[in-house]
Write a structure and sequence with these properties.
With 121 residues, the chain is an alpha+beta fold. 39% of the residues lie in helices and 19% in strands. It has a single domain, classed as Ribosomal Protein S5, domain 2, CATH 3.30.230.10. The chain has three helices and four strands. The longest helix is centred in the last third of the chain and has 22 residues. The chain starts with 12 loop residues before the first helix and ends with a helix.
Length: 121
């Protein structure tokens, strides 16, 4: 497993607000991906995650975040000069009875979102 360095993360509220205002977005069944050209001259994408308590308990939310970080690391979108904010949908909560299905739902939604981003960039 590769690391997820600070340079690849959106950490400050200013960055999150920058993405919420005027950013394009891709809707998927379980995720909404906001994306915009990065404010930082890094030539690599930065990822921000927003997973509310409506998605599940702390263990479930952290699992969603782990899956999303892994998918980001393995995706070609990380080489684009973008800031990406992923907001998880509360619809994920219904799928926790089958953990593998829920993980595949997150992965499939990520892939759909990345394809939509690539079309517009």
């Amino acid at each position: 497993m590769t690391s997820f360095p600070k340079e690849s993360r959106l950490l400050k509220p200013v960055d999150f607000n920058y993405l919420r205002r005027g950013a394009r977005y891709a809707n998927t069944p379980f995720l909404r991906l906001y994306y915009k050209i990065s404010r930082v001259e890094d030539n690599n994408a930065r990822l921000g995650l927003s997973v509310s308590k409506k998605v599940g308990n702390a263990v479930q939310r952290n699992r969603v975040k782990r899956i999303l970080r892994e998918e980001f690391r393995n995706s070609s979108v990380r080489f684009l000069n973008l800031d990406i904010l992923v907001v998880a949908s509360p619809r994920l909560k219904a799928g926790w009875s089958d953990k593998s299905k829920n993980a595949s739902n997150v992965r499939e939604s990520w892939q759909i979102g990345v394809e939509a981003i690539k079309k517009h960039v």
